[in-house]
Amino acid sequence: MDRLQQQIAFVIELDKLKSILRRTKPVGAARYENSAEHSWHLAMMAILLAEYADEPVDVGRVIQIVLVHDIVEIDADDTFVYDEEARRNKQAIEAAAAERIFGLLPTDQRDHLMALWQEYETRTTPEGRFAYALDRLLPLTQNYHNAGQSWQENGIRAEQVRRINAPIGLGSQRLWTQAQAFIDDAVRQGFLPDVGAPEG
Q1: What residues does 34 pair with on adjacent strands?
Q2: Per CATH, which fold does 3-189 belong to?
Q3: In terms of Cα–Cα distance, which of 144, 135, 34, 149 is closest to 81?
Q4: d(Cα 39, Cα 20) in Å, to the nearest integer?
Q5: In a structure prediction context, what are the per-residue pLDDT tens digits for the chain, which is 200 residues long?
């Protein structure tokens, strides 16, 4: 195939991301969100919240990272962040998916998208850390504004939410402070159990 045909093949492959369902519902909706709309939402957050990054970030690169980071789910499906067992094999499965899916592209674009995906995975740059922080913050925020929908459905406790989402603080202490306020209020309101917490 020539360059354009490879690019079109990749674009058509991306359409499959719209069918990958996550565990979180859009705020106020009865349906589950898909990974494509999740990625779009993160791109908007990058534009709006970049001022809270702990280190200066290239917003354009953060947007590229968040738009690319879940493409591997076309093959690997979405892994529920609180599912410890499923997360054990996640890295190898997603690496194989990245090789196949990005491999549809011309070499230069394949290498560029692979580098963006790896930047998210390794979090070795300010942009990678901030992209990861946004990716943790969005479902937490949705859950808080949906009265703990995904947490309730999956028996998640406050300790798990704090532990899994603590990396938000590696990209933005201000956003982590806000996330903790959501968690604490969810506990107070009773839709996020805090096992072992003092009564009252």
Answers
A1: 21
A2: Hypothetical protein af1432 (1.10.3210)
A3: 135
A4: 12
A5: 799 999 999 999 999 999 999 999 999 999 999 999 999 999 999 999 999 999 999 999 999 999 999 999 999 999 999 988 888 889 999 999 999 999 999 999 999 999 999 999 999 999 999 999 999 999 999 999 999 999 999 999 999 999 999 999 999 999 999 999 999 999 999 999 997 544 43
